[in-house]
Amino acid sequence: MFSKFMSAWRSKALLSQALERAEKMLTSVAKSHRLVIGCLVEGSKCEIDIYARDRYINHMSREVRRLVAEHLVLNPKHDTVAALVLLNVDIDIERCGDFTKNIMELSEHYNRPFTESMGYEVLSELEALVSEDFDLTYKAFVESDETAAARVLENHIVVSTKSDGLIEKLFYFEEKLDPRDAIFCTLLSRYLKRINAHLMNVASTVINPFDWVSYQYDGDPADAKELD
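RESULT FIELD:
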């Protein structure tokens, strides 16, 4: 299915332009994330203008939407699903940028080396997986690599489990907690989990049926039903 989407994106002028911008967005967000994490690890003030980088990502996001809309207006019966998938990807990449900006703001409030946090071990494991998933998602999306896409979905299960485990640990931590550190651990683990969830959504477009994009595909559950 994804190979058909990619063929449509690359063969149609407007969709091809939209795809190019989506790829640039993903590259730019990944770079922003690396720069912000570098500041976080050092406990130093970020000298980069993350807000300017975020404005660029938002601009590219609007460009993707405009180009897709123009394509659908001019070609209302052609490549509709491919266009919708590209819009989905655009939203997820833009959200990765937003959460990266949140991490930068958190880092400035924390204002101490990341290594001093009581959650450093788990948080560093989460960050390593998220950084890996930026690379894997790019490979999956740009190169139509199903193996890379599957790895992102597998990693997301690990990220979710570790993030939830850290939050639970904070709730039941028997020693006195430093409030600043507790807030830092809680927010950073959640921001990383959300970034990874959006990367998983992008990667899922490569291997999942359209109705399962942004979900862990396990077939249609037989017991799915509306609850009162």
